[in-house]
Amino acid sequence: MIKIAIDAMGGDFGPEPIIEGVVQALESEKFLPILVGKKTEILALLPQYYHEKVQIVDSSDVISMSDQATNALKRKESSIYKAVELVRDHEADAVVSAGHSGATMSLATLRIGRLPHISKPALATLMPSVIQTKTLVLDVGAVVDCTPKNLYEFGVMGEAYAKEILKVPSPRVGLLANGEEESKGNALTKEAFKLLKGLNGFVGNVEGRDIFNGHVNVVVCDGFTGNILLKTSEGVVSTIFALMKQQIRKSLPAKIGALMMKKKVFGNMKKQVDYAEYGGAPLLGINGCVIISHGSSNSKAIKNAIFQAIRYTESNVNKTIEALLSNNK
Question: What fold characterizes domain 1-118+285-315?
Fold first, then answer.
């Protein structure tokens, strides 16, 4: 049975939505959750029926969002440290955390370790697209200052994830730049372009709009650019929905039309852009499975992050990454 270590204390709202998400996941998937955190708080929130269906690892410390990620290695009693150690010691197959993302990434990299031939891991996220398959973007915050080699490795990892998890037979990989021509971009992307040419699925430079129009399945960028892109996209989505509501309120026909479209149109649109539908971002390049969820994750997001961890563990993503890097050395 797949074992998932879950940082029960991470997240903006404490353990309640995390434990609710675990319960929801247990209702439809067979796995063993290992809840790491303050045992008394966990048991107070966990329904009696599920006490025999989970394991609890007690921890006395919690790394808050305001703490320095660099101190995570010293805080061995923290919930995220102990959750990561379970994967390192092969007592769990994956870790899910909605806690301090910097601490989670640092601990995963230093304690679990990287895959062979990977110099830096990448945080990947799915973006909405006009086609059925979402667009995978990486990196969105793990590596702010990248080298061309890092971007090449991101392309390999993205291609492997798209094949194994998104089930795209021949993923199209693009390099984010300020124009489609090979001559466009900065010094980093121009050098990365030369390396990415060796990747079967590489189609060249892509622009920001190509993330959402279905032109490619994977978009590669440095973590600084990717994080700004991610936050900007989240802001655009919330602004569009707010503007739509404003306009609907001004017109009776619009209100009637909106009511008619509420479930099928608006419901599907919201589902497409709702972060909770994806649950979290995989940290690719780690010798294991690490899913990092948003600090404000609700129970639905935690449930889907757990599902994502299960699918990742069941897949051959890491083996595919190793094979691609070995073949393209």
Answer: Isopropylmalate Dehydrogenase (3.40.718)
